[in-house]
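Input record, target 12 of the design panel.
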């Protein structure tokens, strides 16, 4: 999964015209990049994925879950609520 650069080059013009806005944009962008760069795209554990659990809020459609004890893997295929999702077994 590609990552966002931690800082964005807003250019010197906005920095010179409105330093406060420049700093706010930098802080906002950095916070967003931190969240995107730490998003879970795969989860390796020794249990099967739950269909309805708080942990599912960490995942998006297309993310993987791997159970190392059984060598099975799942992909998240749909979401009906923040916590209720459908995992399709792929191995």
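The sequence produced for target 12 reads:
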């Amino acid at each position: 999964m590609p990552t966002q650069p931690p800082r964005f080059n807003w250019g010197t013009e906005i920095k010179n015209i409105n330093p406060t806005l420049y700093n706010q944009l930098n802080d906002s962008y950095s916070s967003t990049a931190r969240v995107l760069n730490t998003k879970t795209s795969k989860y390796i554990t020794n249990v099967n994925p739950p269909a309805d659990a708080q942990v599912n809020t960490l995942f998006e459609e297309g993310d993987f879950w791997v159970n190392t004890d059984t060598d099975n893997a799942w992909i998240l295929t749909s979401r009906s609520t923040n916590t209720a999702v459908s995992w399709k077994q792929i191995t």
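Helices lie at 12-17, 19-37.
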